[in-house]
């Protein structure tokens, strides 16, 4: 399997080269040169597998450089802290099914991918005798999940940018209290898009990137998308009675990475009928699907901060397929976005987009009301992001036994919202109980490229 850029300037990369490059050197995102297809016989073979073996079967189709035993060892190490027999419980609640993706070390769905990516980085670096400086941006959960994936590892530093005062207190404390000397948390004055722009601009300085050997953990890294694709198969097998039945999946999303993984799974042959995007007030993806209006507006703080995003990085990967693999059209569209702050998708392209996805949005009040209703109806507690998905499913009238909402974070990560709505505090998992007793360590910098590059240069080892 070889990899290329959505913008056409990079091709022929191995899986390991794609993982280490992160953002393509031409500014695009890396994608496989072909997507493996699974038939009904293949799906039946995967049906009863435990999670680690399922992950191996999916991931191995996208790589040919890592020996089978080594790949399986990386996967087993990545999920050793999970109950891999029931790693992602799929429960009935709110008239549908809820897939609990948050049973990893930081209680976020992003642990599934970032535990794998951290071990994959370590494997490749050890083999090559190299050091890596990871650079990432977070609107909430990516930061802590990435940090927990690489903290304390030899030959790796991680520099994680997050918008000051725009992540939950629990999320911030998870990131900043690891007491690990290879972890650097940077509070940026601004919003998540400012953080993401800084990361991309730093990667686009190819000389600096090569000098510091920068790597990416955001969902611009292909390995994250690939690892997330696995759980769509898992959820499907836990929902259907027989292979071939269709399901609907609702994805609360801001950066489009999670829902793109579902799109990839469907292109591989997984029978997903409706793939729904659920957004909060920061509704660029909903506007795009409904009206073809991918225009950047101001970011509004909400109670579901992981989706407080107006520039959905992974949308470029989807554009590549929407434009029929025309890299020149992708490049032109991304340049238009940079200059004019919008991409206009009309005509047959909008029709295709609407066949691929449906979308809706929820306000803060909608999410709070949904948390309240789900608890009253099902005695089941959900976080605001999951509530966004459940609300949109009801608005779009696809609540059914074969509809699954991805639950992306443990409700205990948003205790103030839960307490405000329900008048009760969520049960605190063991890994979150002593956060307030730890010492917070973070660094404040302005959203200036030179300030970030200077900080990385001073602290990279």
UniProtKB/TrEMBL annotation:
Family under the similarity heading: Belongs to the threonine synthase family.
Pathways per UniProt: Amino-acid biosynthesis; L-threonine biosynthesis; L-threonine from L-aspartate: step 5/5
Catalysed transformations (reactions): O-phospho-L-homoserine + H2O = L-threonine + phosphate
Gene3D superfamilies (UniProt xref): 3.40.50.1100, Threonine synthase, N-terminal domain
EC number: 4.2.3.1
Segments traversing the membrane: none
Modification N6-(pyridoxal phosphate)lysine occurs at: 110
Cofactor list: pyridoxal 5'-phosphate
Protein name listed in UniProt: Threonine synthase
UniProt keyword Lyase, yes or no: yes
Protein's GO biological process: threonine biosynthetic process
Assigned keywords, A-Z: Amino-acid biosynthesis, Lyase, Pyridoxal phosphate, Threonine biosynthesis
Organism, as annotated: Mucispirillum schaedleri ASF457
A GO molecular-function descriptor: threonine synthase activity
Pfam families on file: PALP, THR4_C, Thr_synth_N
């Amino acid at each position: 399997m070889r990899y290329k850029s959505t913008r056409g300037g990079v091709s022929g990369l191995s899986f390991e080269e794609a993982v280490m490059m992160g953002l393509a050197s031409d500014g695009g995102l890396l994608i496989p040169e072909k997507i493996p297809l699974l038939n009904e016989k293949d799906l039946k073979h995967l049906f009863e597998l435990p999670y680690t073996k399922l992950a191996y079967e999916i991931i191995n189709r996208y790589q040919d450089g890592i020996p089978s035993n080594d790949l399986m060892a990386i996967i087993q190490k990545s999920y050793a802290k999970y109950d891999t027999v029931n790693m992602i419980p799929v429960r009935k609640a709110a008239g549908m099914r809820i897939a609990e993706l948050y049973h990893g070390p930081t209680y976020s769905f992003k642990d599934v991918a970032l535990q794998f990516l951290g071990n994959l980085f370590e494997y490749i670096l050890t083999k090559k005798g190299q050091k890596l400086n990871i650079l990432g941006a977070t609107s909430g959960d990516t930061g802590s999940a990435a940090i927990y994936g690489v903290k304390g590892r030899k030959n790796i530093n991680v520099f994680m940018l997050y918008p000051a005062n725009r992540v939950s207190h629990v999320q911030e404390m998870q990131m900043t209290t690891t007491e690990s000397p290879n972890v650097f948390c940077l509070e940026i004055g601004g919003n998540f898009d400012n953080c993401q722009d800084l990361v991309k601009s730093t990667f686009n300085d190819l000389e600096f990137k090569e000098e510091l050997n920068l790597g990416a953990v955001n969902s611009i890294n292909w390995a994250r998308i690939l690892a997330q694709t696995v759980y769509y198969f898992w959820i499907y097998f836990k929902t259907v009675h027989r292979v071939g039945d269709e399901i609907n999946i609702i994805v609360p999303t801001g950066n489009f990475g999670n829902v793109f993984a579902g799109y990839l799974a469907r292109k591989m042959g997984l029978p997903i009928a409706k793939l729904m995007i659920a957004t909060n007030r920061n509704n660029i993806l909903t506007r795009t699907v409904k009206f073809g209006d991918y225009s950047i507006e101001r970011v509004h703080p909400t109670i579901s901060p992981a989706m407080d995003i107006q520039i959905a990085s992974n949308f470029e990967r989807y554009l590549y397929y929407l434009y029929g693999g025309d890299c020149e059209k992708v490049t032109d569209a991304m340049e238009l976005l940079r200059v004019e702050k919008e991409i206009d998708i009309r005509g047959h392209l909008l029709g295709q987009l609407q066949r691929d996805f449906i979308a809706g949005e929820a306000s803060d009040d909608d999410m709070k009301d949904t948390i309240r209703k789900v608890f009253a109806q099902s005695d089941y507690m959900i976080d605001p992001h999951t509530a966004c998905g459940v609300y949109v499913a009801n608005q779009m009238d696809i609540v059914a036994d074969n509809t699954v909402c991805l639950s992306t974070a443990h409700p205990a990560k948003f205790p103030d919202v839960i307490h405000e709505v329900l008048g009760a505090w969520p049960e605190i998992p063991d890994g979150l109980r002593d956060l307030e007793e730890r010492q917070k360590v973070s660094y404040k910098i302005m959203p200036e490229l030179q300030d970030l590059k200077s900080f990385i240069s001073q602290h990279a080892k």
